[in-house]
Amino acid sequence: MLRNELILLPMLKANRGERGGLVITRKYMEGAAEFAKTWPGPVTSLFEVSPTRTTDLDHIEVTPDEMGTGIEERPGNLDALADRVRNSAGALTYLCREEGPTAKMFHRIGVPLVFTSEYSHRTERQIINATTANPILRIRRKHWMWNAQRSCRASLRISAGLQCSGTPTYRQFHNIKPDALLFFDNRVRTTDVISEVNLERKAGVLAAKRPLRLVFGGRLISMKGVRYLPLVAEALRRRHIPFTMEIYGNGPLEQKLRNDIATRELGGCVMLRGALDFRTGWTAALRDGADLFVCCHPQGDPSSTYPEVMSCGVPIVGFGNEAFEGVVDTSGSGFVTPLGDVEALAARIAQLHSDRNALIEAARVARGFALENSFEVTFRRRMEHMIACSRLA
Predict the structure, then answer these.
(1) How far apart are CA 188 and CA 177, in angstroms?
(2) Which domain of life does the protein's organism represent (predicted)?
(3) CATH 3.90.550 fits 6-184+376-389, yes or no
(4) Are 39 and 3 in contact (CB under 8 A)?
(5) Do domains 6-184+376-389 and 191-372 have the same CATH topology?
(6) What is the predicted pLDDT for the residue at 52?
């Protein structure tokens, strides 16, 4: 029986494709395939299968071992799951209330289980505030969240380890797991980080003091703070700052954003560009046509956007949510403004328009951080940690 197999239990659900394979996101599969390059044995993902697709944009249909890593349907009950994983070397899953019984099962059968975490208690409260208008429903969701946090702490205490995406949960759970791994999720490989030559070219463009090329990219949803973007643009216009703002992505708030841009007569400087392919479109647009990323996230989602933008030599100015503050503290690059304060954010951008050297230096520091936390470097560190927590140690 296998003793060196790594089991991945993704929170992401799959659905059946036309070829009989599982439809999942390319981002997930590339991550699993990268795990498989470092793990000393087979790596298998067990997916719950749903009749509907997720709202992600990068779906692909995958058959077993097609990308160098195994995929299977997750057994439907704990006893069947225990039989499937009993002889594995360890497992990795997402820290959430729903996996509480799973954690107890792994503990009972003696298979090391490592958790990954993203959202701190504070961030979850902020997400509820940003996405839930009904005050009664907001209270109910926060009460459920409080109970879920208690369950997560109990699961952590019996787990073999913890990997924290971003600083918020790393700081929150440090008293339970002082040996937790801190990492910054990101899809940019070392070879795709902006070169020194291209970075110097960007520095020359910035030094010429042309209008600032501002950019935002991500899902157009409440928790990403897209409603603030026209307000920031309007505040910059009042300050007579020359700029353009390009907004990439799509989502349910796209039409509202279009209406706000039109109502505020911002069409000459704020443009919606839609969603781009990550490698051929988005990162290329950042490397070649952006000076500063404007991040209005009203919550501490440890988005992969932060290191991915920095890898393109683009500094970030944004609201001081705990995830962005953690990135700035760790990297030394970026400009933090008070949470939700549009005028302060616009004022900081205005300062940076005048101080191009600050932007150039932030871009250089951002590149160094990106190289230290590139896609393959991050996954290698995660696998080394996973091996240390597993039966192979």
Answers:
(1) 28
(2) Bacteria
(3) no
(4) no
(5) yes
(6) 74
How many CA atoms, within 13 angstroms, populate the side-chain half-sphere of residue 1?
Answer: 8
**pLDDT score of 63:** 79
**pLDDT tens-digit readout, 264-273:** 999 999 999 9
Span 349-384, pLDDT tens digits: 999 999 999 999 999 999 999 999 999 999 999 999
Please name the residues in contact with 302: beta carbons below 8 A apart, sequence gap of 6 or more: 118, 165, 166, 167, 168, 169, 184, 185, 323, 326
Distances in whole angstroms, Cα of residue 310 to Cα of each of 77, 182, 382, 387: 42, 18, 21, 29
Q: Using one digit for the tens of pLDDT, what is the confidence trace for 54-106? A: 656 578 888 777 778 999 999 999 999 999 999 999 999 999 999 999 999 99
Question: Which residue, among 170, 203, 227, 228, has the nearest Cα to 366 in the 3D structure?
Answer: 203
So where are the chain's domains? 6-184+376-389, 191-372
List, in sequence order, every residue forming a beta bridge with 243; answer none if it has no partner: 212
- Report how far apart the first and last C-alpha atoms of the chain are (Å, whole number): 18
Residue listed under structure tokens 């790596």: 43
CATH code, 191-372: 3.40.50.2000
Give the separation between CA 369 and CA 316, rounded to whole angstroms.
13
Alpha helices in 132-195 (DSSP H): 135-157, 167-172
Q: Which residues pair with 248 in a beta bridge?
A: 217, 274
**What's the CA gap between 187 and 373, in Å, rounded?**
10
Q: Which residues of 171-188 are buried (b: 16+ CB within 10 A; e: fewer)?
A: ebbeeebeebbbbbbbbb
